[in-house]
Design a protein that fits this description.
Elements: H1 11-23, H2 26-38, E1 45-49, H3 54-65, E2 69-73, H4 82-90, E3 94-95, H5 103-114, E4 120-123, H6 127-135, E5 145-148, H7 151-162, E6 170-172, H8 177-200, E7 208-212, H9 216-227, E8 231-235, H10 239-247, E9 251-252, H11 255-258, E10 264-267, H12 277-282, E11 287-291, H13 301-307, E12 310-315, E13 318-322, E14 328-332, H14 338-341, H15 348-367, E15 376-378, H16 381-394, H17 404-410
Length: 414
């Protein structure tokens, strides 16, 4: 099947973006060299659905270097970069994706990368796995397993597994220490504010920032807001995380109270209707809202669109809605992932670790084909430690090792 992209002539700027990423991704560059020699994916088809920008593109090229036939699509209608897609096609990789696709086009693109009968699935949010289980059941025997990149996707996988519906093993890449400690906290924290700042061109210092959710992504987002000089309010449903937010120096209150005072609102929960009709009724006039969760349901966009008495595009990626109560609220990037829909996503060095985990987890599945005992698999500790050790060494940092005597002492009670 031929690739389906917006404009193949855009490849030159995409190639420059990928080359810049490669220059700043020591781990992936090393794995690319290793994979070229060992070909761990020789004869294997990999279907990948991840936000299609330069860092993802380089992961695709690394997997291709390992012998894989790559079939690539995006995981969000607004995060695909058309020049990057064109550069991948130029490099001989099949791509089905373009920026600002319709819901129907998005599903068609996902369908296209599954029709080939993949052996490995690399997913971000669970759309590939879901469609494989609903529309391509006959192709499931071809699947060795897959990897899931994000919290939202793992929630979907856990629900499928609990219901006995998951038919092939999936590695929970998001739960790896080298993923959520760094990608979710430092990557999201920086890239969310990159997206907000480049889109709004407004100062953050002195403003009140409301962060909904205090998981690893929320922690990073709140930390960066504080660093930019904001007063930060956290909203939570988990009492333990709420206490943690308080002890980290942040205010904690229900969303309906925070709505009255917040200047910026960032949802990072993985849940739906985090900001809803009741919150809009009391929202501060001029509030700026955005989402850093995977799907565009955390801000109740359906209610906003149905009930706003006036809408207006304020500037690129900022849509204004005048509420029945008279206030204006401004939503960034249509309520989709602000760091990717209005920015370039996580820094290259952060995704270097996350995508190294992806590549090594896919290699692990191939090596353990038929030997994995459960449908949901944690990233093996040796993979996590391998990535961490390599990254430390690239940073010029080294750590101590236990002596045999110390190991014996620590294991004496076992």
């Amino acid at each position: 099947m031929a690739s389906e992209i917006r404009d193949a002539s855009l490849y030159e700027s995409g190639e420059k973006k990928i080359e810049w990423v490669k220059r700043n991704c020591d781990l992936l560059r090393t794995l690319e060299g290793e994979f070229e020699k060992t070909k761990p994916f020789a004869g294997k088809k990999i279907a990948l659905s991840v936000h299609l920008e330069a860092k993802t593109a380089y992961l695709c090229k690394v997997l291709k270097a390992g012998g894989a036939d790559m079939y690539v699509t995006g995981s969000n209608p607004l995060s695909t970069q058309d020049d990057v897609a064109a550069a991948l096609v130029k490099a001989g990789i099949e791509v089905h994706a373009w920026y600002d696709c319709t819901a129907e086009e998005y599903e068609r693109h996902i369908r296209s990368v599954l029709e080939v009968g993949p052996n490995i699935i690399i997913d971000d949010g669970g759309d590939l796995v879901h469609m494989m289980h609903t529309e391509f059941v006959d192709l499931i025997p071809n699947v060795i397993g897959g990897c899931e990149e994000t919290t939202t996707g793992i929630i979907r996988l856990e629900a499928m597994n609990k219901a006995g519906e998951l038919k092939f093993p999936m590695v929970k890449v998001n739960n790896a220490d080298c993923k959520h400690f760094f990608d979710n906290r430092y990557g999201t924290g920086q890239s969310v504010w990159d997206g907000i700042n480049r889109t709004t061109n407004l100062i953050v210092a002195g403003k009140i920032v409301v962060v909904a959710g205090y998981g690893w992504c929320g922690k990073g987002t709140a930390m960066r807001a504080k660093g930019l000089g904001a007063r930060v309010i956290v909203t939570e449903v988990d009492p333990v995380k709420a206490i943690e937010a308080v002890m980290d120096g942040f205010d904690v209150m229900p969303m309906k109270e925070a709505a009255k005072v917040g200047d910026f609102f960032i949802t990072v929960t993985g849940c739906n209707k985090v900001i809803d009709e009741e919150d809009f009724a009391v929202i501060k006039d001029g509030a700026i809202m955005c989402n850093a969760g995977h799907f565009d349901c955390e801000i109740d966009m359906a209610w906003l669109k149905a009930n706003a008495v006036e809408t207006k595009e304020m500037r690129k990626n900022i849509q204004g809605y005048k509420l029945p109560t008279g206030q204006w609220v401004f939503v960034l990037a249509e309520g989709r992932l602000v760091n990717l829909a209005a920015g370039d996503g996580h820094p290259a060095e952060i995704m270097d670790m996350s995508f190294a985990i992806q590549a090594l987890s896919a290699k692990y599945l191939v090596e353990k084909n038929g030997q994995v005992g459960s449908m949901l698999i944690d990233v093996p500790r040796e993979v996590d430690n391998d990535v961490a050790t390599r990254k430390l060494n690239f940073l010029g940092k080294y750590i101590d090792k236990l002596t045999p005597e110390q190991e014996a002492y620590l294991n004496a009670g076992l």
